[in-house]
What we know:
Structural class of chain A: alpha+beta
Radius of gyration of chain B: 21 Å
Shape of chain A: rod-shaped
Order of helices and strands of chain B: HHHHHHHHH
Largest sheet of chain A: 4 strands, antiparallel
Oligomer: heterodimer
Radius of gyration of chain A: 32 Å
Amino acid sequence: MTLxxxxxxxxxxxxxxxxxxIGSIGxxxxxxxxVPLLGYVASPALKTQDKPWADVGATDQFKxxxxxxxxxxxxxKDGWIETSSLRSAWVVRQADSSFVVFxxxxxxxxxxxxxxxxxxxxxxxCHTGIFDITGKVVSGPPxxxxxxxxxxVENGRLFVRQEASRVG
Amino acid sequence: MLDRAxxxxxxxxxxxxxxxxxxxxxxxxxxGWWYTFGSACLFLFILQATTGSFLAWYYSPTPxxxxxxxxxxxxxxxxxxxxxxxxxxxxxxxxxMVVAHMLRTFFFGAYKYPRELxxxxxxxxxxxxxxxxxxxxxxxxxxxAYWATVVGTEIAGSAPLVGxxxxxxxxxxxxxxxxxxxxxxxxxxxxxxxxxxxxxxIHLFLVIxxxxxxxPDDK
Lengths: 168, 219
């Protein structure tokens, strides 16, 4: 039996232990910083941002069979920059108190149309496109019925949300 | 596999000799924790450079958007408050460690021959660190940042004869505003980091070439 033990029996040298410790602590710091940084960089890409709902008024102000044009501010969020722009829509209250909200642009070439109270039709002045109160094409060049906006009723108020609109 | 790749590079670039010169140097007996402050400063600078690079992803250096972009980092971006928090606290820690490193060097007499040049470069590193602190403090563009910089530039402006010119130079005009914020940001993220890396390079070269000083009581 020998008094001098071999290196492997004595375990790692001081030098080996220190390199191992430095490596481990370094890896821990890199991970502790690297993981949050990955989330930090990726987080805006992972968010699905819906357009916000715009409040266009109390539901009682709309009367069944009488379409009303509403103007409202639509909020835009671009990172930390918030702006708003003026939008319009045609609101039609149904007999059962539900709502239909039309895009205020004619489906032909995007002109603004208006409600003719005497004929009870929507008339686009550009090329005499005519729609009935349900948005169906009565006559003229429009290729499809009026486009609709999403809407919801909450606490007696009507909210509208515009999806990307099509023209033509 | 890794060894073979390193061998291939080493045969062409001689990296093992460089690694050895940096990490396998002889150091004097009795060197201990007092000698770690410089490495702590270097670590904090790397931490600042990393977190700062990523803060710049979502920061906008204009008066209308600076504060909103900070709020966006704090509230909308995942881990944004952690990244900004690390940058904020490490900034203070770096000033503390740089001063501690300087005091250690002074009281151990480590600035003496042949290390005077290392000390002088170290003084530039101290000034660059304080420059980072001064320019970085304005960037959140809140009340504290704004008025601290008003006061800071007023102090510079109180110098005789050239004071008013220096104040205008720092603010980019008489009033503190958009021009001030843009130049402080540019100095903070472009000019000072370049100066810092250059001076750190010289500082480390001298430390490695000359070697660390022995503790004063070691004969």
